[in-house]
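Record format v2
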Amino acid sequence: MNKLRKLIIMDDDPHYSGMLALQLRMQFPELMVSSYNKADLPGGYDIYVLDNDFFGEKCGAKLAEDVRKIAPESLVLVLSGTLEFSLLKRLVNCHAAGVFDKSNEDDLEQMSALIEQFLVRLSQPGPQPTSKSLSNTLTGIRDLMSEWNRRLAYEEKKVS
Amino acid sequence: MCKTGKHILIVEDTKTVSMLLSATLQREGFRVDVADSIEAARQLLARKEKSQIKYDLALVDISLPDGNGSDLLEELATSTWCNIRYAVSADSSRRAERQALAAGADKFIAKPFDLKELIRRISEEVGLRKIVRHSEQGESWAEEKARLASGYRDHLLFVVHELKNPMQFKALKSRLHQLRGSAMLYGFRQISVLASELSERLTEQGPSLAEDVRAVLCQEIRIALSQK
């Protein structure tokens, strides 16, 4: 029997997390999807989708760091409208897989693709590459840097 | 007599514990089935499957005479015959808790437990399940989507009402951040784009712009609701 995989969405807006949960369940019926609208961290999940903004407080990086302590092998995805250097640095350090704009459909598609890759990897027999491996760290840094550059290019385009 | 309409499965091999739990839950109006092994639980589940009635909650002891309760939790989590699963164990370590949650338990209860508190939790969980857990409820995806969309319209009406009155700068920023994400998911793209723009302007110009932001947002939400 395949082990049941669990995903949790941590967002202060239950309307957002409710609809995102439905979309993810439609896309990944094998995944158990829950949501939580407080910023204290429940353990025991394979995938964490964390909102950076909880009632006006930027706590995505802190949550991502805490997830690494209680679930070191999990996939950590962060939702944020902005990507400041301090956030990027902390996310790279705690091996977050990506930062996505919650109001951008393309970003949410990219996030789904990462979830799919993670689930496929978990379903394969043999030892699983851990999220702390060097290759994963490099991939994470590369993805986050390209995301940061993309955001900067977008901001510059808006200014000009 | 089952006054609540809720069915509970207890999988526990210590007779005194299962009898106490069963009697207390029945007194609270739950219908209770007790199994003293994994095999006995499987037989009860097979019987439930035939009668098309689900268990609303299962309390599963991790240490059972014919195996590990985690195996049963996994089976329950992948089936549609039990909505909520509680793991019960005498081992209260973080490791035991993590293993039980990874196997599909929604909550981990360490022995010895406070019976009154456990009953309160069960009653609350069975009642609050729809808010927290987005999983099999016998509701189709289309029905769930319609329910969420209807709830979101009500939420937008509440936001309109909220925006009529002054609010803290931080609360307004947080509301714009929420609308930016949720409005896009519910197909109110114009509200999402507007919330994003207003959030940026508010950051640049500060609280002096708050009243204008509230007025513009209030008007646009009203228009969007009338068009959809």
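Chain A has one domain: 5-159.
Confidence is low (pLDDT under 50) at residues 131-139 of chain A.
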